[in-house]
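Quick check before the chapter quiz. The format below is the same one you will see on the exam, so make sure you can read both the input and the output lines.
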Amino acid sequence: MDRTGGSGGGSDCRQTEESKPMLGEMSAPEVNKIGAAPCRRALLHRNGMRYKLLQEGDIQVCVIRHPRTFLSKILTSKFLRRWEPHHLTLADSSVTSATPAGYMENSISYSAIEDVQLLSWENAPKYCLQLTVPGGTILLQAANSYLRDQWFHSLHWKKKIYKYKKVLSNPSRWEVVLKEIRSLVDMTLTSPLQDDSIHQAPLEIVSKLFSENNLTTQDHENIIVATAPLLENNHPPPDLCEFFCKHCRERPRSMVVIEVFTPAVQRILKHNMDFGKCPLLRLFTQEYILALNELNAGMEVVKNFIHSMHGPTGQCPHPRVLPNIVAVCLAAIYSCYEEFINRSDYDDWRLALASLLQPIPFPKETLAHKKFTKELKYVIQRFAEDLRQEVHSCLLSVRAGKDGWFQLYSPGGVACDDDGELFASMVHILMGSCYKTKKFLLSLAENKLGPCMLLALRGNQTMVKILCLMLEYNIIDNNDTQLQIISTLESTDMGKRMYEQLCDRQRELKELQRKGGPTRLTLPSKSTDADLACLLSSGSFGNLENLSLAFTNVTSACAEQLIKLPSLKQLNLWSTQFGDAGLRLLSEHLTMLQVLNLCETPVTDAGLLALSSLKSLCSLNMNSTKLSADAYEDLKAKLPNLKEVDVRYTEAW
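Here is the expected output.
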């Protein structure tokens, strides 16, 4: 007869061979004193055996109705009653059969099962479990010892979880609740069952406890601390994530955030494969990072956390960390534009980060947010400084017609806050690599010629080289634009020198310059009075007829330069700070002026009435100025050639 009842059953339950009597020699009361706990501990440590939680399966069932005092005699008898095959299901509250008849006509509630034991002594049937119920015993016989042990642990788990759900569903004293939760966590950690539901079930019980009861802050924290061991290797369920988010928002300086949430968030970032399946995990991670930022030296704490996620070596061992952090940060950006975490300090992450950020269509409101722009600017600068082409090429637009990073940070761009310093740095690195090509220059000429000329006018060496190359490669077809570029180059000593070297190589540029200055000129946005003065002093602009200063930073002071343009017929000052003093000066000198746009300028009646001396004026835009109705009537009477006029959003409208 097999004394152990299969592989590893009762022999591990013995105290010692010498000190413990044979089970067959025990009296019935002594047999009934053998609890399941020693056997569970033995099975747990036996060769590190692990089992999957059973939800259902085939097994043999025998039910014996008897007083307990006769149990030993019945079990040691040679013959037991008949065995019935059943397909049992371990439901949430009871054990049921797929064929409810015979022994299993009625389901067996877990609350009715007093104990679950292994039968592993002499003369006992092999691979059997004993379920003690009021007035009898239910024997379950498996096909082998592994299945028997699997049924044993699964039944114990279902029975215990059922008990904890009932106890914690209607709590009375919170000190008892906390004790039960600790016991539940301990049971989970020591269980030999390996299944996602094993660790999720206690977390779901705690989540339900939070949702159905008004807890004090201290009770809330105590319960979170008690469940902390489960969070180290398991994601919190969605409902629990909501409470964790709330805790991060309401108590960001709580030690729970550092001691409990840190390992939980680290696991999420390392192992999450798809935030789309559980967006609350992403929100929890976001709220955790925001909570870290609320601590003293918050940004330093966040940086230390990012460093811990990367690891101490030059190569990050966790491939999921970067895309998960980026997903969290982008979600935060779209919701409030408030935070952006810097991960560009790590060389091995930089390429992936650049690739992730390149195609993202950030909202304009986000790019205009000063804090976001400042944080992102540092990241983009690191991309530009990276020597690898595959990294800094991500500064370019990913699709035609869409701005890239170097365009967004150009002067006048939505994210530019530094007068183009970062833009110049990005163009420099791109020109220094394989992008010193006609295609790249064509792109700049089509989209960012204005910023290039503005920075060249201010002495930026990279931009001076760009303009020279545009002339050398015949990128610009329009003669007026070519002449404006030449004038821009000749406005600085460095530009003049480089242009002269270019002319020595190409005689036709000298011929172009001899024809005189351009007839049309548009200054880039953000240009100042000084920029205009520098440009106009660099060459001959006696032929200039059309000048646009729209959306620049010029003021009335630039009128001193404008009156030196005797052929000027069209002047656009839309959305500038050009005022009454400038208008009075223009009206005295630019007698040939025919078209004047003063839309959204600070001019008033005092300056506008001075325009009555410009008899050639035929088009005048005074939209959104401080024009009065009387002044408008006076102007119309004194300007007989005025055919087109715009006075919307004024008193004269």
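If your answer matched, good. Residues 170-306 form one domain.
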